[in-house]
């Protein structure tokens, strides 16, 4: 069952005896678990009927014994197991799942992974309860997720602002949501979020950021690229070289892929590369300035400087700023 359907059922008070929430993306796991924790029971009922365990501190047999109990002065009890990934074996659940307690809602938060899908217990979980896998989003899906999240809060966002956030905050959805929520607090509903809003309220420079750096490199604008790198050197904690090399690797990999697309139209390229159509135009123009041979060389350069930034293949004492300057010079020449 998908996230939205599970959440809608919970809001309609359609409950299942077991919720097994697993996967590499903790954001959706937390949303579902938190909703159950806050909304299934009222405050008076929670005192006797809502129990929260932690997998690293509680034996699974204790969880099951608790789940078999009847609620006190309520129709249901809620048992939530956080950090359930601490349980290496879930075999004890099989017997409970044969006849789960109908008045118990048992929730497992199994983050950063999932149990072996070939085991009997997973089959039982899918048959008797809700088995939900929260999958990590790929980098190219993050701007679209940001757009949808902003829209769901009755705001909108420019493509440039969306790319700024995705480049700097990565793929951790809870982190992105937290930063966007800061904007929603200070800006009136209906606002179109811009790079200026992000710079003022989140602290990401609208002129000196990795998104602007990719644009400067795409245009082969030597002066602008070096100004941005100099700013990075003056603010190393906010602009670590590992972030720069990671973003540039994604950028130049897309340019390389573009050269081999059967359909190079703007719309087809945007779809194939996972880009906003507005952003896709700049990628197409940049690809015209870098042939496949040069792009293959650049990808090698980025790998080289990523290794050097981690202390490999580099003499000691070389600053991150010097490494970034060298890297940008080699990319542009």
How does this model look, in words?
The structure is a single chain. With 333 residues, the protein is α/β, with parallel strands linked by helices. It has two domains: 3-133, P-loop containing nucleotide triphosphate hydrolases (Rossmann fold, 3-Layer(aba) Sandwich); 141-332, Zinc Finger, Delta Prime, domain 3 (Up-down Bundle), CATH 1.20.272. It is 57% helix and 10% strand. It is built from 17 helices and seven strands. It has helices spanning 3-11, 26-39, 43-49, 60-67, 92-98, 120-128, 142-152, 159-169, 173-186, 195-201, 210-218, 222-234, 241-258, 266-273, 277-289, 292-309, 320-332; strands spanning 18-23, 50-54, 77-82, 104-111, 130-133, 156-157, 192-193. A five-stranded parallel β-sheet has the order 2-3-4-1-5, sandwiched between helices. A two-stranded parallel ribbon has the order 6-7. α1 (3-11) runs parallel beside α2 (26-39). It is elongated and about 70 Å long. The model has no long low-confidence stretch (mean pLDDT 91).
Short structural summary:
Helix content is 57%, strand content 10%.
Q: How is the topology of this model organized?
A:
Blueprint: H1 3-11, E1 18-23, H2 26-39, H3 43-49, E2 50-54, H4 60-67, E3 77-82, H5 92-98, E4 104-111, H6 120-128, E5 130-133, H7 142-152, E6 156-157, H8 159-169, H9 173-186, E7 192-193, H10 195-201, H11 210-218, H12 222-234, H13 241-258, H14 266-273, H15 277-289, H16 292-309, H17 320-332
Parallel strand pairs: 1-4, 1-5, 2-3, 3-4, 6-7
């Amino acid at each position: 069952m998908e996230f939205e359907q599970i959440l809608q059922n919970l809001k309609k008070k359609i409950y299942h005896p077991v919720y097994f929430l697993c996967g590499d993306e903790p954001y959706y796991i937390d949303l579902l678990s938190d909703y159950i924790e806050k909304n299934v029971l009222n405050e008076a009922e929670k005192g006797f009927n809502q129990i929260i365990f932690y997998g690293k501190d509680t034996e699974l047999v204790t969880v099951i014994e608790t789940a078999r109990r009847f609620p006190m002065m309520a129709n249901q009890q809620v048992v939530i197991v956080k950090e359930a990934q601490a349980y290496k074996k879930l075999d004890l659940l099989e017997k409970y799942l044969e006849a789960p307690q109908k008045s118990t809602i048992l929730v497992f938060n199994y983050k950063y992974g999932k149990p072996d899908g070939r085991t009997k217990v997973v089959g039982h979980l899918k048959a008797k309860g809700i088995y939900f896998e929260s999958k990590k989003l790929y980098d190219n899906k993050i701007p679209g997720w940001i757009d949808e999240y902003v829209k769901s809060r009755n705001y909108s966002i420019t493509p440039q602002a969306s790319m700024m956030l995705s480049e700097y905050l990565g793929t951790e959805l809870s982190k992105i949501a937290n930063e966007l929520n800061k904007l929603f607090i200070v800006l009136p509903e209906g606002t179109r979020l811009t790079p200026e809003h992000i710079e003022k309220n989140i602290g990401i420079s609208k002129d000196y950021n990795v998104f602007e750096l990719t644009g400067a490199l795409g245009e082969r604008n030597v002066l602008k690229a070096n100004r941005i790198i100099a700013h990075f050197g003056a603010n190393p904690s906010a602009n670590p070289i590992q972030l720069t090399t990671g973003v540039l690797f994604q950028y130049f990999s897309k340019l390389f892929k573009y050269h081999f697309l059967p359909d190079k139209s703007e719309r087809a390229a945007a779809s194939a590369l996972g880009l906003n159509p507005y952003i896709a135009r700049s990628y197409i123009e940049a690809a015209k300035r870098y042939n496949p041979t040069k792009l293959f060389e650049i990808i090698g350069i980025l790998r080289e400087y990523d290794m050097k930034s981690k202390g490999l293949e580099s003499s000691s004492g070389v600053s991150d700023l010097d490494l970034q300057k060298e890297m940008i010079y080699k990319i542009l020449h």
